[in-house]
Amino acid sequence: MEGVAGLFDVHVHLFPPEVTCEIERYTTEDVFLHSICNSKGHKYATVEDLLQSMAKNGVAMAAVSGFAANDQGLCRLMNDYVLEAARCYPGRLLPMAVVSPGRPGVEAEIRRARDGGAAGVGELFPWGQGFPLDGKEASKLAGICREGRLPLLLHVNENVGHRYTGKGDISVKEAALFAAANPDQDIIYAHWGGGLLFYELMPELQRQLQRVYYDTAAGPFLYDQKIYLVAREIGVLSRLLLGSDYPLLAPLRYRREMEAAGLTATEVEMVCGENARRLFFRTEEHMHVD
Ligand SMILES: [Zn+2]
User: Fold this and answer.
1) Which residues contact 160 (CB under 8 A, 6 or more apart)?
2) CA–centroid distance, residue 191 to ligand 1 (Å)
C-alpha cells in the first residue's frame, strides 16, 4: 500500500464547497482573502479532490487547513469542514485550525477546534490578516497554542524578489523575533520561512530557532532546487517539512526536486515524512495535559 510509507504533506488548503460557490459574498469585506481568491492560478479543492490527489501523489497523510479569513465566523466554517473531513478519514487527514487573531473569540475557537481534533493552528497570515508578529494578538496566540501544545503554521515570505498575490511585508526579521520571544512554541514557517533558514548560519539565530520548522510550500516558484543542498549544509534538514500548498502544486513535484537536487533517500524520507511525524505525534501525546 502506498499509504504506509507515503509522504506527509503539512501544507494543504481545502475550501468548503458551500463557501466556494458563494465566494464573492463571503469575501466582499475581506480584502486579502478576496485578492487571493481572485488571483491567477488560485484553485479550490474539496476533500474528495484532495483524496484523489493523495492517491496519485503517494501522500499518506496531509495536515489540512481551510483558509484563514478576517471574519471569525468564516474561520469557524473552514474549521468545521476540515474537522469533519478528518473525522471521516482518521489517520490520513490531520486538521489544522484557522482563526482571526485580531478579532474576538480566538481562544474559544482554538479550544473548540482542539476538542474537535485539531492538531495545530494555521496557516495564518500575519500580514494579510493584519496581526503583526510583534503585537499583542500574536503573543496571545502563541500563549494559547503553547498551552494546547499546538504547532503554529504561519505564512511568511521573502522581502526581496518578484511580486505575487499574498506577498506581504512580514518577513525574516519579524519571524526571527517572534520565534525568539516564544522559544517553547513549535512554529512552522511556511514558504521556507521567507529565507529565515539562511540566517541559521548565525550562531545566535541557530540557538533561537530550535523549535522553528520550515515548509517547502511554493518553493518551485521561488527558489532553485539547490536550496535543498543549502538546507543540508546549514544543518536544518531535520526541521524541514514537505508542504505542497496543494492545490497550488502537487506534492510529487517537490519530491522530484529533492531527488534531482541530490538529497539521499534517507534525507528525502526525513523531509517528506519523518520530521512531520515527530513534530505532530510527539505533540499529540501531550495534548490533553491541561
Ligand atoms: Zn502561505
Assistant:
1) none
2) 6
Q: 140: CA distance to ligand 1 center in Å?
A: 21
**Rounded distance from Cα 290 to ligand 1 centre (Å):** 31
pLDDT, tens digit, for every residue of 161-188?
Answer: 999 888 998 999 999 999 999 999 999 9
Query: For residue 203, how far is its CA from the centre of ligand 1 (angstroms)?
Result: 27
**pLDDT per position as a tens digit, 143-155:** 999 999 999 999 9
- CATH code: domain of residue 21: 3.20.20.140
Provide the edge-to-edge strand list for the sheet that holds 212-215. 7-13, 59-65, 93-97, 120-124, 152-154, 187-189, 212-215, 240-241
Distance between Cα 190 and ligand 1 center (Å): 6
Examine residue 57 and state whether it is found in any structural domain, yes or no. yes
Its pTM stands at 0.94
